[in-house]
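A further point concerns the way the authors explain their paired sequence and structure data. Showing the layout once, in full, would remove most of the difficulty. For illustration, here is how one protein appears when written out as sequence plus structure tokens:
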Amino acid sequence: MITSVANEKVKFVKRLSEKKFRDEEGLFVAEGANILSDLKEGFSVRYLFATEDNLVLAEKLSEKFGVQPETVDSKVMKAMSDTVTPCGILAVIEKPRCVPSGTNAIVLDGVSDSGNLGTIIRTAAGAGFSDVYLMGCADPFSPKTVRASMGAVLRVNIIVTDKENLQGYLDGYVRVAMDMSGDDVFGFKPRRKVALFFGNEAHGLSDFSFENSDVILSIPMQNGQESLNVAVAAGIAMYVINHNFINK
């Protein structure tokens, strides 16, 4: 059992809280029994750490991914964890190398809150928007984003891109800018695959997103409400698009 926070592996995991180090190593940390239980085969798990209370799950994951679990005490787990109350099991996983699937897509333009980003990714996975393009967004592999996504960062294709390269990805798509100035999304019935653009929580979409969209749509508001949280709005729009495709 690892009982010292000075252990080299423990220090390595702690450094993965830094985006620069995650990018350099191509690794990220995923915590929690629910997230790790749902982890599918095909991903490379570098390290697996668990407290004694979580050794049964750790052994199952060990067999699945061929990595020997390390037992740690609660003090060490707390040092490695990004949460106030650690779940007792975490893994260090290689970032996936994603390529677009060509299905419905969502483009996030400057979404800066990790919780919002993770929630949108989770909803995109459930709604079948399997390609998620990020321009100037929070890190999709930060601990907070991974938790908010409930592991969905490994179930969609996350492509970090810029304005120039995004253009080539979206050939053949109907590009939809979601903004309160647009037409009612509930009346939109697409006949080909859609790329939904959502912008920054405070400032909305950039000029680039507006200029490169085919249509501007909005979610109707009542009771004087001007807007919705971006993650809520993205969820509504994705499911409306799916419904209108199915029933066009």
Notes: The first helix runs from residue 8 to 15. The chain has ten helices and ten strands. The mean pLDDT is 93.
